[in-house]
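Let us practice reading a record.
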Amino acid sequence: MMKIFNEKQVWFVTGSQHLYGPKVLESVANNSEEIVAGLNAADSVSVTIANKGTVKTPDEILAVCQAANNDPDCIGLMLWMHTFSPAKMWIAGLTQLNKPFLHLHTQFNAALPWNDIDMDFMNLNQSAHGCREFGFIGTRLNIERKVVVGHWTDEQVHKDVDGWCRAAIGVDTGRKLKVARFGDNMRQVAVTEGNKVSAQIQFGYEVNAYGLGELSDVVNAVSEADVNCLLDEYATSYDMDSALLTNAELKKLMVQEARLELGMEAFLKSVNANAFTNTFENLTGLTNLPGLATQRLMGKGFGYGGEGDWKTAAMTHIVKTMGKGKPGGTSFMEDYTYNFGGKGQVLGAHMLEVCPSIAAAKPQLAIHRHTIGCQCDIPRLIFSGQSGEALNVSIIDLGNRFRMIVNIVDTVTPPQSLPHLPVAHALWEPQPNLNVAGAAWIHAGGAHHSVYSQAVSVATLADYAEILGIEMVVIDNNTNLRHFKQELRNNGMYYQR
């Protein structure tokens, strides 16, 4: 069965011991095979689960952990204790394991066979206490891990497993990610700065700078044939006035934007970068700040951060990858302006760069004047975001650690059409309300840029943060400002360890 992340695997490893004899171990192996087949048959599990057999000795456990470390397609392990597996056997393997693991606390049978149950059954089906023994050693070794409890056929178990698998995919993606920076951070801005070495140690991604001259050379080398082909794609993909391709002056602007898209994509692929930043303060050699070009690159999965915001660029790509195949999109976003009239709302947008994956309807392609930095007419997609629950995610550098701030929001349809707003946007009501959410976000140090997503869950982001060992705070309907501020203080003490 093809999975969304079919090229990656989670290794399923069963714990037992030789104490119970070959007949029990044969049953353990057969039961494990059936559980793996069941997980792979579940539509909601997006990663292939690979059965790596039963480990019964310290050497076998160490060997499978070392093998997982060295397999680039293995993003983590799922560990299950079918019988009692003395946990000292796991110390050598777990202390060397550098992949995340999920502890699946299940048992093969769902209901107890009341009329037939005997000690043979009890000895075979003793996950209830075998997993507790294993759980102790994880806690004793101070290893962060996911624990999923429930029968392996339950849909909620499948969803919990998949949420963790997507977090592990995000961690794996970050460890291989390269972010290309065209120009520096916006001058005098604090929150988009940060320590790139610390980020590479924590998240794994590289942040590399490239001169605008290098990019403009690639942009200028784009062929006319490729430009014309892309213009045809624009015409069929979006609502647009035909004059954009028939009027000579307007078509010139469209050609410039097509060159930027093709050139940037070619350059990013040439340096193996899946995320990028630029800044309107440094466009030397380019015709304009890329608008439509950046939106479409985000639509293809590239991460983006405005004004040199490399942390948000990286996280945009990571969240896009974690949300692959799920309904809803993910975009670079900014809290732009408030509606304090009636229920407090936030109108999110940016100068040009909002990803069409979040659009409620087919976007309009139009050309409007850009008035920040460069004064010129730029093609861009205009749309409103799809209504429904969403998340805003901000990664900030606090010097001694990184913090992830997450606000759950309820996106709504704008009450009017916003006929004079020439940029894509989303209107949302922050949970629990704008007053509390705005204060909590500011107390936490959240950036004005964020990753906006309707494709990932808080649980997946929590798993992601836990695997990486970073602080995470959530602003939602349960947020009490006094308690939230105390949580920040407590976290400050915890991360001073």
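A brief commentary: Residues 5-175 form a domain with the Rossmann fold fold (CATH 3.40.50.10940).
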